[in-house]
Write a structure and sequence with these properties.
70% of the residues lie in helices and 0% in strands. It is mostly helical and 64 residues long.
Length: 64
Amino acid sequence: MMGRPATEIPHKDHTVSPGKFSNYLIIVYTAIMLILGYIVYRDISKRISRIESKVLAIEKKLNP
């Protein structure tokens, strides 16, 4: 052991291959679009409910 050169230990490369990176990118993009879609849907449904309640109030005033 004393005079022998140390053997190299093979190290695994920690870089991400382009194929895996694109898969991760697609998954993250899809998740962001789903989250934003839910937020927009919730906001629009609230606005529609408010408009509908205003229309019903106007209809009640016009048709006694």
